[in-house]
């Protein structure tokens, strides 16, 4: 077998694909003063009234210092409940297609879009905004010119600051330490194509497993009942989504047709996402992992499995 090389990303066309440009509705919304960095309303009406979306780059090549070995983490969180809608390991938090794909998957699961999406002003959010505005304007046509736009640009994104702070104090810090410190003893050479591809294959799965656990545990936590508080007050009260009736919360998701949502992918609005490795290498790596008895990928054994994968694929 020829030595595989890591996937370096899609070749980007000089001209944008059809459907990439933001729709006219987004251009119209851009003139709204709500795009200014400003505080949100002190209250939320209920689940889906506001989703915050943001990425974290503490596991990127810039911070790992191991050549092209790089991972991004992207999250979507509901402000009313604190519920983590999505928490995904992505190859690059600056890739618009990857972020839009995560958002579109969340929209499919919820069968609708939030009333408002809060993001920062980076260009990597363009396609995600396109999905939000297109679906929001199509399935909520009663909006008037005076109605607030379906998104808000805000930096920093307060709804996710606490999540990232906890992530980097706990799981993120341990993952970063293990990847960096144990790479040398494991014999990792960032300039070796096989070494890099195998590391991307192994560690992307380990990181995602940790993220799944973080999301599962966080979404199981219950907030004490404070019946005299209004939902989402600046006092810090965050009502429990599962018991939102206690706090007068309502479901604010804008229902969307799943056929239309899925059609956004086939129409090219959301293109193919960046992969950690090429398709050929991924098949070969899974085959080698099966030959090994498919040992569970964990932080403590990731470099050991990586070493054996390299031997089998060399």
From TrEMBL:
Domain Integrase catalytic span(s) in chain numbering: 38-124
Which InterPro entries does this UniProt record tie to the protein?
Answer: Integrase_cat-core (IPR001584)
Write out the GO biological process terms.
DNA integration
Q: Give the domain of life.
A: Eukaryota
Q: What is this protein called?
A: Integrase catalytic domain-containing protein
Origin species, per record, is: Rhodotorula graminis (strain WP1)
Q: What is the lineage of its organism?
A: Eukaryota, Fungi, Dikarya, Basidiomycota, Pucciniomycotina
